[in-house]
Amino acid sequence: MGEAPSAAVPPEELAGWLKDARQRTLAVAAGLSPEQLIGPHGQTYNPILWTLGHIGFFQERWAWCRLRGEPPLHPGLERIYDSFDIDPPLRWQVPLPDLESTRHYLADVLEHVLRRLHEGTGAGAADVAYAHRLVVFHEDMHAEAITYDRDALGYPPPALNGPGAAPLDAAALQAELRAVLGAGPLPGDVELPGSPAFWLGADPGEPFVFDNEKWAHPLRVAPFRIARAPVTNGGYAEFVENGGYREERHWSAAGWRWCGESPRHHPARWRRAGGGGWEVRRFERWEPLPPHQPVLHVNWHEAQAWCAWAGRRLPSEAK
Asked: What's the CA gap between 239 and 295, in Å, rounded?
């Protein structure tokens, strides 16, 4: 870890982050049946019940065992929740505790971590801050993933406004998005001058850095042009309507194999509406495809194929 003293964070602030992350996690996972908490096998998501236990295990490992040098609070759970050893297909096969037991595990780990945090003993302040940032960011990412899983599997959206709140109102959200995004697309490109020494990556002085962001290094970036806005649903629909999913020339070899493995002619969450237009599924509801919003839930192969059809390329992190 080895953070600078300036990276220290008051225990009360760290405790607030931990509690806030846990409240959000429980909110996004609430309201699901036992069957939904397990869900069908898939390559892009996990059983939500497994994810909840994994969040507790990660917090226990990093903010309790690794940081404090304490033995596990619940020995043996690494055989269920350690993502390094339990590959995704196995997460439907391991004997998962039920929801009540999982919630008890989450609460017990958090209680121990908070108690030791306020005692102010053990590792240095900067290392304490780093470890707790790590578990908070990890939990936040999994809360986002649970929300994605609910959408991908056609479950109702979570209630995110606190206990007893109603699920998200999709129609209200669409109205708000229309107000924010305006009445139409933003076509065209913008020219950027590039840089002889663009620093890519994280600076060692940052209070928290993920390992895949280490370390900043100079990169020469030539002048380039980039679209003013993301590809819209309407722009992607043109590709679909022009037979984009039926013409191999738009696809990479791997992409064309993927396209043939599960024959499709449009994005997975689109369908034809009665009048011949398109509908898109948001969580469990189908609604008219908003033409000027960014296209969502297309994979790498589909994005590459659209770029080939449109004479574009996908951007990199630098440009």
From this structure: 12
Radius of gyration of the chain (CA): 23
Q: Rounded to 5 degrees, what are φ and ψ at 200?
A: -100, 125
| CA distances, 55 to each of 23, 67, 190 (Å) | 13, 16, 42
Strand runs labelled E in 64-129: none
Model confidence pLDDT, tens digit, residues 160-216: 765 455 555 666 766 666 665 556 778 899 999 989 988 999 998 888 888 889 999
Side-chain-side CA neighbours of residue 286 (13 Å): 10
Cα-Cα-Cα-Cα torsion 79, 84, 90, 95, nearest 10 degrees, comes to 20
- Give the orientation angle of helix 99-119 with respect to helix 125-152, to 10 degrees: 160
Output the CA–CA distances (angstroms, integers) from residue 126 to 7, 53, 102, in the order listed. Answer: 5, 27, 30
> What pTM, to 2 d.p., does this model score?
0.86
For tokens 């990556």, the residue is 201
Question: How do residues 29-80 score in pLDDT, each as one tens digit?
Answer: 999 999 999 999 988 889 999 999 999 999 999 999 999 999 999 999 999 9
